[in-house]
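ok so I'm stuck.
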Amino acid sequence: MTPSISKILVTLTAVFLLAACNPQEAKPTDPMTSEAVVSLLDELFMEELKESPEYMTYLGMRERYDEWDDRSDAARDKQLEMTKRHLAIVKAIDQSNLNDAAKLNIAMFIEQSEQQIEADKWRYHSYPINQMRGVHSMIPSFLINQHLIADSAEAQAYIGRIAHSTGVIDQLLEQLKVREEKGIVPPKFVFPLVLKAIDNIISGAPFSEGDDSTILADFSQKVRAINLSADETDKLIADARAALQNNLAPSYQKLRSYLTELEAGADDKDGVWKFPEGEAFYNFALKRTTTTDLTANEIHDIGLAEVARIQNEMRQIMQKVGFAGDLKAFFDFTRNDAQFYYPETAEGKQAYIDEATALINTMKGRLDELFITKPKADLLVKAVEPFREASAGQAFYQSPAPDGSRPGTYFANLYRMSDMAKYQMESLAYHEGIPGHHMQISIAQELENMPKFRLFGGYTVFSEGWGLYSELVPKEIGMYSDPYADFGRLSGELYRACRLVVDTGIHAKRWSREKALAYMADNVPHSEGYNVRQIERYIVMPSQATAYKIGMLKILELRATATEALGDKFDIRQFHDVVLRDGSVSLSILENNVKKWIVETQAH
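replied:
not stuck anymore, here's the structure
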């Protein structure tokens, strides 16, 4: 029976007071039930959430709706102390009466909190503004995509956020200047891309002649849609124009001026080895991303071995289809021959969607061979909408609404049909849809008694590792009958293997951007433009790209261990259930879960 909220709050308050007095001795007065643990963890999550008006907006809450997050060092210090306090509370829980699910929740909370505390040493080891992401682009993106307007008050809050952007930019400048003093400055190639993005944000009305700027166009459209009087609508739009002109524009100009000065002293060193204690920081970044203790050299060597293995499998496909040239010539052939692409027409785009839908539907019919638990939510295939297709990725997944009101969606970006080869359709559909992200995310959402910190969080190494593993599994039940489709699967896996090589090459082995690009050009079938964007991503987001292959390899390793240990008792469906039934977890917890299942299965 779930305890009353009042009882939970009394217990929680007592624990808070104990933790404040002496975190090392913080202990609840009585053993907690498993249900109470979830409630406690949710209370801690909500306390943290209340410090982030932006995250509240992401979750559909309208509190502090005219505010931005505090990005100052003082706020960071406050967050660190809260994390330490929460960690002490959770560590003090008496686990003697708890079920396995509650113990797992506690283990994951402790793991994540300890990592957050460890990460604080490296609070300045990042580029808070770069070509991939940053506060400068977050402001318009957040207002457009997250700040909804249902009435006049919410419109006023939108205007408030425009006006308060001055404080956000001022805090950003403070953070940039601290990093400049420490020698943590992006390489030169980043600056023209960022400056162009800033210019795009402050172009158009009211900043200059022409069409409305992106923010003003969004605000005007939202306000006109809520059926206010003409006078009130006009006044709100006029107030938004004034806030853009008087607050946002000067702040962005100040940011632009500073970045222009910073660019003059920037260098062409691309790796984080140039940071203070750069080697130690990168090792931490790899540990955080992969949730393993693999070193940069070990990951680099894994990448080289995987590249060689995958390319050998590609050569076997060349023999199957009767291609006479070398691998690089085969790459050129598959990249450029018209037979591998739908036409750049409305009919061609619809044909792609139809075929992708057929692939998903076929895979739906085979799920019983691979899974016991299947998601209740349906999956749709759609083209990326025209308003964002020019900047969106090749393909991505949108999770279903937790209440079942919206299905999961696999989005295929058909902006350029020449970027969407037919031979990659199967692997993309399996990765983003079924049995990939749709299976993993939908099943996680449908789990009961999941604390909020897990429901809204997760591990890239798990989710992307599962996505890449899901490209392989269908081959094992007879999919990819077309050898070119199997080549498409391998080309995706090859790129993830090359990421291990170039990410560690750039950040640990001091490779230049040019050396990394040359490696990609020699080893993958992708275009030069695609390779440039990817390498530049790895430079400003160290270690992130290593998650995909490391996660996949761990799942395969655990499957091999289970297969060997269980022999005839091994059931692929049960194995997949074990992998997915606890949602997104670190690889160490995943390994523990699988090993426990092996022991239990052997006992039966």
